[in-house]
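This follows on from our talk about sequence and fold. Go ahead and set the record down below:
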Amino acid sequence: MAHSNTRQPILTFDWATAETLAMLDIKPFGVTLLKGYNTWTSGELIPVGTIDLGLTPMPNLELMSHIEPSLILVNNVRLSQALARIAPTENVSLFPITGAPWTATLDFTMALAERLSLQEVAQRFIDESERQLSRLSYRLPDNQKPIIIAQFRDERHVWIYGQNSLLQGVLDQLGLTNAWDKPTSHAGVSVVSIDELPTIEGQLVIMRSPLYISTISDRLNHSELWQNLLSLRNSSTVYIPVDYWPLGGLPSAMRFAEALVEVLEDT
């Protein structure tokens, strides 16, 4: 049964919420910075026809008023207060993650489903996700080393995903060890100079993010420093394709799991 055609418009400023709504067959009518999200996810997780509401801190209020939404879901208390003049507004966010990341992801999914009376739909996706993660775990090498998940911020710095990240939840379900145990931000990442990478034990997994593909990769290929740093590492470096948002919800988590296992089983 398709719910998306029978409900009044829902707008969201949060990408994790947007992709979770789509998973539950509730098409988000509008999403902020939609073009950026689609660049990360290849435009495959949120249905075609969703409206871009503009920048998150400065959305198109006139457009939002014209849509006459039934609900606005945001991840910022200040925004929720300002937008309440347009429609009922609620503050929802997966981050910061407290406790076990996988449990937090499922709780976030179910809380959103309960708000929309779609608990059974959510539970079906949760059950299938856990079955798929179990299947994926059997494809991993028996001698798999701890891993470091890195995303380039610029050509001299990376974000490394830590213990309170969405991606950590996936590692836990796959039985993998995260080699990074340093303090992280509310989003679960640490900013690290590339000079430090040779000193971190474990297999380095580099995300082929939109920025990496468009700019960073070419610069690194011509960087003597980067080539020297790679040669100093005791473990191999692999590159993981990106068709997910690393700060997303269950849909992105599952896409990350598939991509990660595929690159690790081939090393």
User: Anything to note?
Assistant: Residues 1-93 form a domain with the Rossmann fold fold (CATH 3.40.50.1980). The chain has a mean pLDDT of 93. The chain has two domains: 1-93, 136-265. The chain is about 40% helix and 15% strand.
